Structure prediction request, 411 residues.
Amino acid sequence: MNADSISVIKVRDILMVTMPPDPDDPTVSALQDKVLSAMERYEAKGVVLDISSVETLDSFFARTVSETAQMVTLMGGRTIIAGMRPAVAVTATEIGLTLGNIETALSVDRALDMVTSKPRSKKLQ
Amino acid sequence: MKTQMRPNSGQKQKSAAAKEITQNSDLLQLLVDSIKDYAIILLDTDGNVLTWNSAAERLKGWKAEEIIGQNFARFYPVEDVEKGKTKMELKVASEEGRFEDEGWRVRKDGSRFWANVVITALRDKNGELRAFGKVTRDLTDRRQNEEKIKKQAQEILEMATVPVVQVWEGIVLVPLIGTLDSQRTQQLMERLLHRVTETGSPIALLDITGVPTIDTQTAQHLIETISAVRLLGAEVILTGVRPVIAQTLVHLGIDLTNVITRSSLTAGLRMALTILKLDVAPLKTL
Prediction:
């Protein structure tokens, strides 16, 4: 598997990033570079990271995603993780992984809705 | 006087003791015959019935005269006899002094009962094997009860697996009832996550009205569930936070500031509708 297996597509002013089913460490590392350079090139408003095909989530992946999201925020964008599988969420919770304050969405569809609408306040109460 | 008295009194004591023994032996016989719960059967060294008590008659269904002289294999299911179970039992009993077993036995009419059987080797003073004593107890009721309890426990466990109900497009509800342990939380988490994904519901209402008390562990389990749901991209609203629960949570120092909580399910549902930008309005009658 190589870095090319990550696809970064610009749709309007959003970056659609799709992860392969079983990303290895180099692939994960490449994710950050690809996303950040695309952010610079397109001045995108947000990043939607589609992980609906990802079957395993390790701490390295989680940390990279979390860091990348912070960097995207610094560059003026929003990051939304879309389509995490239930099994992945269970494992992630079991080993105590969190994605920090990154927004999540059930599907890419909903993620797009979220990006185009106003940013939802973190605290809803 | 004293010297004369001694042998006399000794004899008297002896005969009294002998009388007592005879009396006790009569009583023992009475006990054996009167006992209702245990079938007591005397077998010769080959396993043929020598005699038995009335409880055995009742339990096995045979009349004493029908069974005396017959091999005790008559009490066993055919397949057990074919496997040599009865011979093995006598062998073990004679070698080890006793044999105990629990299993199916057969009545005269062919019906089966669940029995606890103890076979004891009866040896005289010289160690010669004289007979076998067999004590059988009908445990069918106990076994049926055990099976019933097992079944009920299973049912309760199945009931305890948390239902996840879709109450509105985009809203699923989990009414939690009873104490939450790790196993239940695991089930809850898996089912909730699957339902959220299946129905594509951005909101999950977790109602804890039916949870009697919350301890640190339970709270931890809830927090885990909530963060797992969030990873999927849905939001959890914790409802049914009663005053007692609220007090406990604060006293235990459990931080739920990042979780939307409401005191009642109604309030939670209203919150959910607000998030989904839905409004419930009375019908306008013309």
About this structure: The radius of gyration of chain A is 14 Å. Strands of chain A lie at 7-11, 14-18, 46-50, 78-82, 103-105. Helices of chain A lie at 25-42, 59-74, 86-94, 108-116.
